[in-house]
Structure prediction request, 157 residues.
Amino acid sequence: MYRIGTGYDIHKLIEGRDLIIGGIKITHERGLLGHSDADVLIHAIIDAMLGALALDDIGTLFPDTDPKYKNADSTILLKKVQKLIKEKGYHIVNIDSNIIAQAPKMMPYIPKMKEVLARILEISPDNLSIKAKTKENLDSVGQKLAIEANAVVLLSE
Ligand SMILES: [Zn+2]
Prediction:
Protein backbone atom coordinates (compact mmCIF):
# COMPACT_ATOMS: atom_id res chain seq x y z
CA MET A 1 0.00 0.00 0.00
CA TYR A 2 1.04 3.57 -0.76
CA ARG A 3 0.62 6.44 1.71
CA ILE A 4 1.16 10.12 0.91
CA GLY A 5 1.86 13.00 3.32
CA THR A 6 2.30 16.74 3.17
CA GLY A 7 4.33 19.01 5.46
CA TYR A 8 4.71 22.75 5.92
CA ASP A 9 6.90 24.93 8.15
CA ILE A 10 7.90 28.56 8.61
CA HIS A 11 10.54 30.17 10.86
CA LYS A 12 11.34 33.79 11.55
CA LEU A 13 14.74 35.18 10.42
CA ILE A 14 16.65 36.96 13.18
CA GLU A 15 20.16 38.21 13.88
CA GLY A 16 22.52 36.18 16.05
CA ARG A 17 21.50 32.72 14.83
CA ASP A 18 23.15 30.36 12.32
CA LEU A 19 21.13 29.68 9.18
CA ILE A 20 20.72 25.92 8.89
CA ILE A 21 18.57 24.50 6.10
CA GLY A 22 18.53 20.98 4.71
CA GLY A 23 21.11 19.86 7.27
CA ILE A 24 23.78 22.33 6.16
CA LYS A 25 24.99 25.71 7.36
CA ILE A 26 24.33 28.55 4.95
CA THR A 27 26.36 31.76 4.95
CA HIS A 28 24.00 34.61 5.85
CA GLU A 29 23.85 37.53 8.27
CA ARG A 30 20.74 36.12 9.94
CA GLY A 31 19.43 32.71 10.98
CA LEU A 32 16.11 31.07 11.76
CA LEU A 33 14.57 31.40 15.21
CA GLY A 34 13.35 28.22 16.89
CA HIS A 35 13.65 25.94 19.89
CA SER A 36 15.72 23.47 17.83
CA ASP A 37 18.18 24.50 15.08
CA ALA A 38 15.02 25.66 13.19
CA ASP A 39 15.83 23.68 10.02
CA VAL A 40 12.67 24.63 8.17
CA LEU A 41 13.13 22.13 5.30
CA ILE A 42 13.81 19.14 7.54
CA HIS A 43 10.79 20.05 9.68
CA ALA A 44 8.51 20.12 6.62
CA ILE A 45 9.88 16.75 5.44
CA ILE A 46 9.45 15.21 8.94
CA ASP A 47 5.83 16.39 9.10
CA ALA A 48 5.14 14.96 5.62
CA MET A 49 6.62 11.59 6.68
CA LEU A 50 4.57 11.55 9.89
CA GLY A 51 1.46 12.76 8.06
CA ALA A 52 1.71 9.94 5.52
CA LEU A 53 1.23 7.43 8.35
CA ALA A 54 -1.25 9.66 10.23
CA LEU A 55 1.12 9.79 13.23
CA ASP A 56 1.48 12.66 15.72
CA ASP A 57 3.08 15.74 14.17
CA ILE A 58 6.60 17.07 14.82
CA GLY A 59 5.48 19.44 17.60
CA THR A 60 3.87 16.56 19.51
CA LEU A 61 6.74 14.15 18.93
CA PHE A 62 9.51 16.67 19.77
CA PRO A 63 7.82 19.32 21.97
CA ASP A 64 9.43 22.77 22.10
CA THR A 65 8.78 22.79 25.86
CA ASP A 66 11.24 19.89 26.24
CA PRO A 67 14.76 21.18 27.10
CA LYS A 68 16.14 18.04 25.40
CA TYR A 69 15.28 19.60 22.02
CA LYS A 70 16.79 23.03 22.71
CA ASN A 71 19.04 23.83 19.71
CA ALA A 72 18.54 20.19 18.66
CA ASP A 73 20.18 19.09 15.42
CA SER A 74 17.21 18.44 13.12
CA THR A 75 19.16 15.79 11.18
CA ILE A 76 18.99 13.66 14.35
CA LEU A 77 15.22 14.16 14.56
CA LEU A 78 14.96 13.24 10.85
CA LYS A 79 16.89 10.01 11.46
CA LYS A 80 14.53 9.14 14.35
CA VAL A 81 11.49 9.60 12.12
CA GLN A 82 13.13 7.60 9.28
CA LYS A 83 13.59 4.73 11.77
CA LEU A 84 9.98 5.09 12.93
CA ILE A 85 8.73 4.80 9.32
CA LYS A 86 10.90 1.69 8.85
CA GLU A 87 9.55 0.12 12.08
CA LYS A 88 6.02 0.63 10.72
CA GLY A 89 7.06 -1.39 7.65
CA TYR A 90 7.28 1.49 5.17
CA HIS A 91 10.00 3.03 3.03
CA ILE A 92 10.22 6.33 1.13
CA VAL A 93 9.44 6.17 -2.59
CA ASN A 94 10.18 9.84 -3.26
CA ILE A 95 10.10 13.32 -1.75
CA ASP A 96 9.31 16.62 -3.44
CA SER A 97 9.94 19.83 -1.53
CA ASN A 98 10.23 23.61 -1.81
CA ILE A 99 12.26 26.13 0.16
CA ILE A 100 10.66 29.57 -0.13
CA ALA A 101 13.19 32.30 0.70
CA GLN A 102 13.73 35.79 -0.68
CA ALA A 103 17.37 35.71 0.47
CA PRO A 104 19.94 34.22 0.48
CA LYS A 105 20.00 32.25 -2.78
CA MET A 106 19.38 28.58 -1.97
CA MET A 107 20.31 27.14 -5.36
CA PRO A 108 24.09 26.77 -4.72
CA TYR A 109 23.40 24.74 -1.56
CA ILE A 110 20.82 22.32 -2.94
CA PRO A 111 23.19 19.58 -4.24
CA LYS A 112 24.82 19.34 -0.79
CA MET A 113 21.42 19.33 0.99
CA LYS A 114 20.30 16.47 -1.28
CA GLU A 115 23.44 14.50 -0.50
CA VAL A 116 23.07 14.97 3.29
CA LEU A 117 19.33 14.26 3.46
CA ALA A 118 19.36 11.33 1.03
CA ARG A 119 22.05 9.65 3.13
CA ILE A 120 20.03 10.08 6.37
CA LEU A 121 16.83 8.88 4.69
CA GLU A 122 18.58 5.94 2.97
CA ILE A 123 17.25 6.92 -0.45
CA SER A 124 18.90 7.82 -3.75
CA PRO A 125 19.32 11.58 -4.33
CA ASP A 126 17.32 10.93 -7.54
CA ASN A 127 14.26 10.36 -5.33
CA LEU A 128 14.68 13.63 -3.43
CA SER A 129 13.66 16.87 -5.06
CA ILE A 130 14.44 20.21 -3.39
CA LYS A 131 13.33 23.30 -5.27
CA ALA A 132 14.11 26.93 -4.43
CA LYS A 133 11.51 29.67 -4.80
CA THR A 134 11.22 33.33 -3.81
CA LYS A 135 8.04 35.17 -2.78
CA GLU A 136 8.44 37.90 -5.41
CA ASN A 137 9.02 40.40 -2.52
CA LEU A 138 5.47 39.77 -1.25
CA ASP A 139 4.48 39.04 2.38
CA SER A 140 6.75 38.19 5.36
CA VAL A 141 8.91 35.76 3.37
CA GLY A 142 9.22 38.21 0.49
CA GLN A 143 10.28 40.91 2.96
CA LYS A 144 13.02 38.60 4.28
CA LEU A 145 11.42 38.27 7.71
CA ALA A 146 10.95 34.49 7.46
CA ILE A 147 11.71 31.37 5.43
CA GLU A 148 9.11 28.74 4.55
CA ALA A 149 9.29 25.17 3.31
CA ASN A 150 6.83 22.53 2.20
CA ALA A 151 7.18 18.90 1.28
CA VAL A 152 5.26 15.93 -0.09
CA VAL A 153 6.41 12.40 0.74
CA LEU A 154 5.23 9.13 -0.82
CA LEU A 155 5.71 5.97 1.26
CA SER A 156 5.29 2.35 0.23
CA GLU A 157 5.16 -0.89 2.24
ZN1 LIG B 1 10.21 24.14 12.37
About this structure: The pocket of zinc ion is lined by residues 9, 11, 34, 38, 40, 43 (CB under 6 Å). The first strand starts at residue 2 and ends at 15. The chain has five helices and seven strands.
